[in-house]
Specification:
Blueprint lengths: L11 H12 L5 H14 L4 H8 L3 H14 L18 H13 L11 H8 L3 H11 L17 H13 L5 E17 L18 E14 L5 E6 L4 H14 L5 E6 L8 H9 L3 E5 L10 H13 L7 H17 L10 H16 L4
Parallel strand pairs: 1-4, 4-5
Antiparallel strand pairs: 1-2, 2-3
Helix pairs in contact: 1-2, 2-3, 2-4, 3-4, 6-7
Length: 361
């Protein structure tokens, strides 16, 4: 009759660590299983019964029981396995990264490709790709940015962000803007429908049927949109749209409208109308800061969902489809939640300025 092995002795700290490992969903399944093996053995359960409970071979239980007895919890982790020695030393890797960041290709190109870097450094293309990915260097990509030159940038930023994060009582906050030059483009051939294994196909050429300007006002509280299309975007059209908003807003509410610095928004006739309607207050975003106006997010949605891939036989057709999209959108609209504080935005811009000046740490 085989001799029964004594139970594994665990300290309180070891038991706590093993129980944590056995419940983990982020550690490897093998490590979780080994922790369960040791915990079962610590209860005095024979190896054969532990193997039956966990659905593994008896020899596996014996292996990890022995490894734990020799090296405790550290013995449950996989050992580093020997592999092929490195053929690219640290100096060559440093040269690759320096070349990518601080030099330009000799052929007049603006940025490196992996093949050009491979030729320049003598490192294989696959190794170049692997090291660039490891260090997070992406010479094929760019990110656009534009810093505001508005001398009152901070004041305007705090004003607009304050309306988003802490809107005034008994007031309606709306983001107002116009999307000009919405083109009624008709594809010259029918679209090819999407199918299994291939995407929707559209012709690259089209017929132009004219343009329209989409005026929109986004209610910051509810996300609902009031919109209208007009043939032009002069101060007359902007003033007409303000009157449309004024008609639908209850008389007891103040109106705080966030707008950009387009010159028609500051026209003398617009200012005169605002003076005659004291409940209206315009808040201008800083120059080159259209991202502060939440209605731009709605413009991105309608462009992506209704305009860019559409085919319109006339401007009237385009306007009808825009109106249809807005009606459906308002049935299930949700507000865009602004979370960034003015201080956090200023800190981010400060980091960007340090990068531009080369003083970032």
């Amino acid at each position: 009759m085989p001799q029964r092995m004594p139970p594994v002795m665990l300290s309180a700290d070891e038991r706590e660590q093993l129980e944590s490992l056995s419940r983990s969903r982020s550690m490897s399944a093998a490590l979780v299983q080994r922790a369960k093996i040791v915990l079962a053995c610590a209860e005095g359960t024979p190896n054969s019964q532990v193997a039956e409970q966990l659905g593994i071979h008896k020899a596996t239980v014996g292996l990890w029981r022995r490894r734990f007895g020799e090296r405790r919890i550290a013995g449950l982790y996989d050992e580093l396995r020997p592999g092929k020695p490195r053929t690219i030393d640290d100096e060559r890797v440093a040269e690759l990264i320096y070349t990518t960041l601080h030099k330009r290709p000799s052929k007049g190109a603006t940025h490196w490709s992996t093949r050009e870097l491979a030729v320049e450094t003598g490192i294989s293309k696959t190794s170049v790709q692997r090291y660039l990915s490891l260090f997070g260097v992406q010479p094929h990509r760019t990110e656009s940015f534009k810093l505001s030159t508005d001398p009152f940038f901070v004041d305007k930023l705090r004003d607009v962000v304050g309306l988003y994060l802490n809107p005034p009582d008994n007031a309606l906050v709306v983001c107002v803007d116009e999307k000009s030059q919405c083109q009624a483009l008709e594809r010259t051939q029918p679209m090819l429908p999407m199918g299994l294994g291939y995407v929707e196909g559209v012709t690259h050429d089209y017929k132009r049927h004219g343009t329209t300007t989409l005026f929109a006002a986004l209610d910051v509280l509810t996300g609902a949109v009031l919109s209208t299309c007009k043939p032009r975007h002069r101060h007359q059209e902007f003033l007409s749209f303000l009157r449309e908003i004024d008609k639908v807003v209850p008389d007891h509410l103040e109106v705080h409208a966030i707008v950009d610095n387009y010159r028609t928004h500051k026209h003398p006739k617009v200012n005169a109308w605002l003076a005659a309607h004291p409940r209206w207050h315009l808040h201008f975003v800083p120059t080159y800061s259209s991202w502060l106006n939440l209605v731009e997010r709605f413009f991105a949605l309608i462009t992506d969902k209704a305009i860019r891939r559409g085919s319109f036989q006339s401007v009237k057709d385009l306007i009808a489809k825009i109106d249809c999209f807005v009606q459906q959108y308002n049935k299930h609209c949700k507000p865009f939640i602004w979370t960034a504080t003015a201080d956090s935005i200023i800190q981010k811009l400060e980091r960007l300025c340090r990068r531009i000046n080369g003083t970032a740490h």
